[in-house]
Every structure is written in structure tokens, then in C-alpha cells.
Amino acid sequence: MDCTLEQYLKTKDNYVLIDVRSPQEYKEGHIPYAVNVPLFSDEERAKVGTAYKQQGKKQAQWLGMEIVSPKIPNLLQQIKRIDEFGKTPLIYCFRGGLRSISVAQFCQLSGLSVLRLQGGYKAYRTYIADALEQLIPEKAFVLHGLTGTGKTEILKRLREKEMPVVDLEEIAGHRGSLFGHMGLEVSSQRMFDAYLYETLVSIQPHSYFIMEAESKRIGNSVLPERLLQVKKAGVPIIISCSFENRVKRIIEEYIIPYEQQDWFEETVEEILLRFWKYMRGQSIWKDVKESWQKKDYPKFVSMLLEQYYDPKYLHKQKDYRMEHGKVYTVDSTNIDEAVSAIQNIVSKTELNIS
């Protein structure tokens, strides 16, 4: 039996999605919370594809059968374990074609009760592409501020207080800077769209949301045009704190959690090579490099802020016209107090209290 995408979206808690595409296809983009139970490995899928191009459909199907046959017991055992959780396994491939049909038939012959998602992953992609812009609320409260002012932590605390937050950096798996990918799993555009859709659905029916002022691109992901328009017309809230506080926060967020990891030093060295292109010819570059090598993190972070991040941010702000009449300023020295201040701004603005 088939299940339509609309049926799944209305009653998704009743199902466990099973993506039977190859691991690489799954990695590039899947329906959120789906479990990958691949019919073919990446290498096997490539072999079948080559056979299809060179020898034709029948030969490719036969090769697929030879590859899959020995794996059927293990594949069904994985689905059986999911079935035992009390939710209906909902199987999909790319278009709702031969791969999901085959797995569903194997399950039925084995006495497992499963459904197949009509149209597969392609139908889901088409649906959210059409739905995304319609789900974006009309109004945004937009947090601006230099690197290290605590905007990400503020968004997290606001969400804990059940405020409608859209944390674009979290969705993108990237903090929007040269160091932005460190310690994170960077989302593909497809996964960014999927998680943005999930977030926008979760904040309905609010007429507004709270976001950080991001560029058009974050990591691998490009923001929807309508989101950029709503951001531009949004209520600006400038987040600020002392330079010393900013340095401390950056060390706590970017360095302390990762400095013992095997990849940390090599990753930072690679990023510093990119900074060199911006600072080439500046005598400060020698001091930046030296402070990093000596692990003088306060000096290292301070120089990067003074010589790169702050000038770049201030330059971008010149090009960013805040169209909203009122601009609010919030001190983030104490995050809890900053969160309360933003809640008050939102409440007053929504109630039209000056």
C-alpha cells in the first residue's frame, strides 16, 4: 500500500521513515528523521548505473538482483526491529520507484506490515520548495551585532522560553564565518531546506519570528529570497557588549570545546592560510601567527577581531539599510538579562506600545 506525502505530514508521528537509497544519496539530502537502510552501497549503485547505460535495463535489473539477494535477510531484520517499536515503517526511494517497491514486496512476503511513500524523496523536495516561502511569517525581529556578542546563545535561550526562533546557523550547521564549520556537521542545501521547513512549521501560527541578521549564504546554504526580504524589513535589535566579553565568549565557543581534538590544529592552520590572503602585506600577520603558535588565545582572538571581523562587519553594515523606523539596543553582558530585554521589546512591539 502507498501513503501520500500529505497523509504522512499530517500524521508523521505514526510512522518511521526508511530511506532505502544509497548512503551518499541519503547524506546529500533526506527527509528529516528518516533511517537509512540502503538497498545498494554507493559502489553497488554505481555498478548498476553503469550496467544500465552500457547494457540496458534488463541487465541492470539482473545485476541488482544478484547484489541484493544475499542481503535480504539482514535488510529485513533491520526493518523488523523498526516495526517492533509500534510505528509503521514508511519506505521511500528517490521517485517511489523500483527500489522502494522491491523492499516493500520483500517485507510483505515476510509478513512485515509496511507502507511506501508515494513519489518518494522527489515529491518531498517539490512540496517543501513550494511551501517554504508561504510558511515564513510576515514580521521578523532581527539580531545584529559584532562577532562574540552572544547572539547564538540568546536565540537558544529565547527558544527555551518558547519564543518563535529561526536559528539559521544551527540549521545550516555553520556559524557564518571562516571558522564557522568547526565542530559542526555542515548541511547541504537540501538538508538546510528540509530543516528550515521543519522549523517554520514548528513556529506556526506566530505572525513573527526572531532571527540573526545573516548573509544570503551560510556555509553551503543559500537563504530563500523571501526570508531575506522579511529580514531587511524586520525590527532591528543591536546586541552589544565589551570587547573583553566578546573575546572570552569566542574562546569558550570556538577553542575550548575543540582544542584537544585531533583535527583542531590542522583545521585552524588551514583557515589561517585563508586569513593570510586578507592580511597579506600587513605586519600584523606575523603577530597573529605567533600568538596562535604560542597558544596565546586572548591575543590571537583579539587581533582577528580587530583586523578582520570587526572591519568586515562594520563595512557590511554600511550597505545594510535598516528600513524599520525604531532601532533597539540590548546589552548582552548578562545573557539572561538580554533575553528578558528582547522579550519585552517583542511584547511591546506586538502590542504597539511605544
TrEMBL record:
Q: Which residue range or ranges hold the Rhodanese domain?
A: 11-133
Swiss-Prot/TrEMBL GO biological process terms? tRNA wobble uridine modification
Q: Does the keyword Nucleus apply?
A: no
Which GO-annotated molecular functions does the record name? tRNA 2-selenouridine synthase activity
Q: Give the superkingdom in one word.
A: Bacteria
Keywords associated with the record? Selenium
InterPro entries xrefs: AAA_SelU (IPR058840), P-loop_NTPase (IPR027417), Rhodanese-like_dom (IPR001763), Rhodanese-like_dom_sf (IPR036873), SelU (IPR017582)
Q: Which SUPFAM superfamilies does the entry mention?
A: P-loop containing nucleoside triphosphate hydrolases (SSF52540), Rhodanese/Cell cycle control phosphatase (SSF52821)
User: Under which name does UniProt file this protein?
Assistant: tRNA 2-selenouridine synthase
- Say which species the protein is native to: Bacillus oleivorans
Lineage at the top is: Bacteria, Bacillati, Bacillota, Bacilli, Bacillales
